Structures are given as structure tokens and as C-alpha cells.
Amino acid sequence: MTIVSSSDDSTIKVWDAGAWALPPSNPHYPNLTAPVPAAASLELKAEKQRTHVTSVAFSPDGTTIVSSSPTVRGSTIKVWDAGASALIALNLSPKLTAPLPAAASLELKAEKQSAHSKHVMSVAFSPDGKTIVSGSDGMIFDRDGTIKVWDAGVGTCHPPTLNPNLTAPVLAAASLELKAEKQSAHPRGVSSLAFSPDGKTIVSGSADKTARTGAIKVWDASVGMGS
After folding, report:
1. In a 10 Å sphere around its CB, with 0-12 CB exposed, 13-18 middle and 19+ buried, how is residue 183 labelled?
2. Which of 86, 83, 66 is closest to 148 using CA atoms?
3. pLDDT tens digits, one per residue of 115-142
4. I need a labelling partner for 134 at 20 to 30 A (CA). Which of 29, 49, 53, 195 fits?
5. Range picked from 104-108, 122-126, 181-185 for highest mean pLDDT
């Protein structure tokens, strides 16, 4: 289990949030055990120094991280390798295997410069990991409020080294090709974005009304960002 964070100190960091372990067996049910999460250690697993980072998000399979950073010409979106999951045998049970993440390399896989003309304040992966959505904000009197949907690559299968009979999907190189765009989705900029669990809908949030009351909008992600 892993956590990714970003900060004004211009770093992306990946943390160990604890692993699953088997508790002592119940004497009344000796054949029944269930994995429970261990205490989060928050041990630093990887770090990447770069420019100011406004938003980060994991792909659903945990192998990839997307980040956004402001530039003099708008914002750049980057996709990073967060390490792949592999199956290992737990010592407590020779018949039980559980996926554990490999060490995060934070190697750059793809980059989209000038992805938005203004600062991107939120990025998110679709549930299938094939799509990235981003939303731009901007300065107080110069807002953009655009939502864009990008191709994040597709999963392919390859045989891991730990088990020749096991194949696991890994994310192919992200093309970051623009798939859809909604200009002026919010007049005061986009502050937050999320996909629905089925990936067919995107919800966006903004301070459209006043400083104290914002707006939430729901978009159809399957037909070119129609509202």
C-alpha cells in the first residue's frame, strides 16, 4: 500500500503506507484467515525533485503516477513509473500470495508540455487507467476553466520473473494524446476532478458562484465532454 504526495518544495514523494499481513489464526476457525493492513510506516520509498507540483494521482493499478506543474506557458502534465506490482509468497502461508508494489522508480514515461494555457489544479485517472482528465484554473482575473481528457496508454501483459505462469498487466507508454476538451467548463477555473466508478462520467468542482459557494458539474465522458 502506497501514498503519493506533492508539495510547494518542488518534490513528488512516494510513501509506504503499510502492507497486508495475516493475523494469528482463530482457534475456533483454524482454516480461516483474512489479511489485515499493518500499521502505516510512512517510510519514504522514492522522491523526485522538480518544479512546483499542483496535483498528483495514482493509476488504479498503482503502477503509474500523473502529475501537473505550472510553467511560463501554462502547465505541463507528466506520467511517471511508480513501480509494478508482483506476486510474492507470504511466509505465514505457502499457499497464499499477495501483490506487493516494487520499489517506485519515478522514471518519466511521458510528458505533455503546454497541456493547458493556465495552471492545472487537478488531475485524475479513469478507473481502467487508460484515460487522464485534467482541469485548469489560472490567476484571479485571468481564468481558463478548461477540462481536457488525455490518452494514458493501454495495458499489456508480460511474464514477470518471479512466477513463469503468472502474467500481469502493465501500462504501455502513455501517448498523452488529447481525446476531448471542454473549454470554459467553469468561469472561475477548475479546482477538483474525479471519474465515476464506471468511467463514463466526470465530475468537476469550482468556485464559480462566490468565494464561499462553489459549483459542481457532471459531464458525459463518453461523448466528447458534453454536459
Report:
1. exposed
2. 66
3. 998 889 899 999 999 999 999 985 555 5
4. 49
5. 122-126
Query: Is residue 138 packed enough to be buried (19+ CB in 10 Å), middle (13-18) or exposed (0-12)?
Result: buried
For residue 178, what are the β-bridge partners? Answer: 150
Q: Looking at the predicted structure, is the pLDDT value of residue 99 above 90? A: no
Q: Which of 150, 181, 182 is nearest to 79 (CA)?
A: 150
Phi, psi of 160 (to 5 degrees): -75, 165
CA-based nearest residue to 4, from 41, 51, 42, 31: 42
pTM: 0.69
Sorted by where each starts, the structural domains of the chain and their CATH numbers stand as 2-22+37-220 (2.130.10.10)
Contacts 24+ apart (CB under 8 A), 2-6: 2/45, 2/58, 2/62, 2/82, 2/101, 2/104, 3/42, 4/56, 4/57, 4/58, 4/65, 4/82, 5/56, 6/53, 6/54, 6/55, 6/56, 6/67
- CA neighbor of 114 nearest in space, from 80, 88, 76: 76
